[in-house]
Amino acid sequence: MSIFLGFFPDNKSNNDIASVAENVKEIFDDLGIKVRWSNPCTYHSTLLFLGKSAFPLKVFIIKNKLKKFQFKKFKVKFNSVKLGISRQYRELIFLDFLEGGEEMRGLYLELKKIIGDKGDINFIPHLTLGRVNKDLSAQESANIIKDLTNVSKKMNVNEIAFEVSEIKLVESEDGKYSFLLDVNSD
Fold it and tell me: Fewer Cβ atoms within 10 Å of its own Cβ: the N or the C terminal residue of the chain?
């Protein structure tokens, strides 16, 4: 079980993302590399990970702190499909942002302050498509990165965009999401 604050793409964008993921799957299938793919119903961008447990008191406190929180709606637009967001997450297959990343960083910092989270300050806006199940060799990584660049261009990833007007407090358990609170833009 885990709890986080994040936002979800609209239906059209979600379908477009799923189409991109299908094309990306072919790259890994052709190379015989197993990947744990995200369920398209759960595509989201996490603004703030709040922990692996959601005790009722913790959820109550977070909800209270978020009651007065407001944000301005903003547009996000994806840039391309990438592999390896950091050394710690080399196996991550994700979409990075062309637009909306700065707004997301601002929200991340503001939410950390409001909630009193002292965790990791390294925040990289992204939407996870999947995770590779093995350590890739340098050659495998180089080949995959080249193929992902081609898929990004072919699929016009940079045309997938939507407006963020709602942030959700989400509890996740075994791939199933429960929405605990909606925070709407002003």
Answer: C
